[in-house]
Fold this sequence. Notes:
Layout: H1 22-25, H2 60-86, H3 91-100, H4 113-123, H5 135-142, H6 151-167, H7 172-182, H8 190-194, H9 204-221, H10 225-235, H11 244-260, H12 265-280, H13 297-300, H14 315-324, H15 336-341, H16 346-372, H17 398-418, H18 429-435, H19 439-453, H20 462-478, H21 484-507, H22 516-532, H23 555-561, H24 567-570, H25 573-585, H26 592-600, H27 616-619, H28 656-663, H29 668-675, H30 684-687, H31 694-699, H32 710-714
Amino acid sequence: MDPHSxxxxxxxxxxxxxxFSPSVRFEPTQKxxxxxxxxxxxxxxxxxxxxxxxxxxxxxxxxxxDEQFKKDMFLAYVNKAIREKLNGHSKDFDDLVDQFSPNxxxxxxxxxxLQLRIWLSALSHVxxxxxxxxxxxxxxxxxxxxSTMDAVFVKSYIVFIGMLISARPEYxxxxxxxxxxxxxxxxxxxxxxxxxxxxxxxxxxxIYDRQHTLLEHLLNLVPTLPSSLAPLLVRNFPxxxxxxxxxxxxxxxxxxxTEYCGELSERVLGLIVDRALMVDVEIQVELxxxxxxxxxxxxxxEFDPFDTIVGQxxxxxxxxxxxxxxxxxxxxxxxxxxxxxxxxxxxxVHDMVSKLDAILKLVFDxxxxxxxxxxxxxxxxxxxxxxxxxxxxxxxxxxxxLLAIQFxxLLAIFDRSIxxxxxxxxxxxxxxxxxxxxxxxxxxxLGLLVDKALFGSASASSxxxxxxxxxxxxxxxxxxxxxxxxxxxxxxVLCAFLGAHLDAVEAGNAASNNHSVFYAVVQSVxxxxxxxxxxxQEELDEQEVGRKIWISELGVVQRVITSDLNPLKVxxxxxxxxxxxxxxxxxxxxxxSILEANKRAPxxxxxxxxxxxxxxxDLHTFFxxxxxxxxxxxxxxxxxxxxxxxxxxxDEEEDEDEDDLVEEDPTFDEWEHGQGGxxxxxxxxxxxxxxxxxxxxxxxxxxxxxxxxxxxAMAISVS
Length: 719
């Protein structure tokens, strides 16, 4: 085309200078707006539109550029603040710390979570440059109420803490202590004020789940974490004066830790048992005495603290209870002497009973969860330990092995803590129930008790040996899962010890200043005989029907009761009288003549105890497995526990000698002050009452509680 033609494109070019011509000035021009950079939908944008483009222009690139620019700015500021802090200029550094510091009044973050995430992203690039002088920044980040913020920030926070611990392991203790505090009941109260406006209310379950997620993440990064976490879990355990909800929340959380951190199982279980014992020893009254009193609020309204929205379950009342006992929080246990001098507070005892019931229920549930997981695995051998049989799957032993490991852990805790706690009433039932899961468990438990009581381990004192003897008698008597052969084996071992001790006394080789273990073993034999006398008889032939032939080892009992040690005078009068009745009713032996002679003679000074040690007046009332009266956790004990009513003799006939003895039974004051225990005088015949439940009135209500008043002792009911 001729460049000078009028149709040339150069003839349509606008002038370079001067104003536009009128025809060009008012011509409609295409405007460039933000709509050009937004996505044009075909339904709203016709194909012949001048703004239509063949493909939409992406806006993510610009957004990413803006975000990257912002991150670069934050990173530059962080680098400058970190550098200036080392040079002595802390203004920028302090401003950076303030970004993570929550509001003092509301405890909520002062900046949006999106901005906090950008700060964390910037800080993740300089973690290796953090030094001791930068500790305030790390502490502010750790104290941040992150578990109450949105899920996106929680994920970023967990990743950042993992990077922090990997780069700076010295901050592990600080982070773990904050996590342990996050498992407490009071930690959830922070969410009431720290939640951002317009956010969804959080339950404690969500908050605790986030704490566990962080802990699991750190456990994968730091294999040695359990050794650092264990003392922090002990430090943050609720005091026994704190409300029941505080104990339930914390114990459930630390039991959950054992599910993904097996190394802490023994420490956690031992911690819970120790704290349960501290509550248990304060319940030194019969629960029947509390039936007429008003229940506490916790008994009227049961709620799961995990499923409640924080701030809506009456935390103010709990805070008042905690404030009243702040002076006790510095110590693990209050003084026993102070508790004895003050009168019994009924409401306090109610709280302790409900609290202990909840604690034991949680532990029982934890044990049962593991036990239920192996119900689908059917072993071909009764042994719980892996064997070398080639027709069995090795993987099928794993659940049983875990069950056995947990039992040995519980057995070690019993040896270390429970056995040495004289006044405990219910905590020892944890081992009682666990031993019912497998015959080998009950054998191992009895083996430990026999070794402690009869063979006298080097570290076992006479008090521990006597307590172990009481455990043997009470366990064999009350455990339904102890079969006939198990009861006979236990009695044979006890009788063999009694015979050897009498031989040593007659030969002058026994220590003349200590027979407390002997009396404890005698009392255990009496107790087992009262409950299991049917299992102690030999099987008779058809020609010998009607006769009672006892196992040969029981022959030493006649020698024991007629010896100079006179156990019928020293042992618990509850057990002695019931043994005398059943022994007469079963034609085993006759004891009432000795009891009558002991009754007329003054109570002798016990010469079988070393100076300064506990005598039978302290041990004869110790029956570790008395009837279990806690309502919620008691559901685990009902199916494996033998009540006295199930073994009592139905048609019991008393002869004239027994009637004379009953009429002259010692008064309550003599039993209270002379024996030191809460015994029950058997005066049914004198009051004209039926004596059909005489045995039940004694064994059913037998208790280790110290006697208080005559009315209290007479009010103990039959279980």
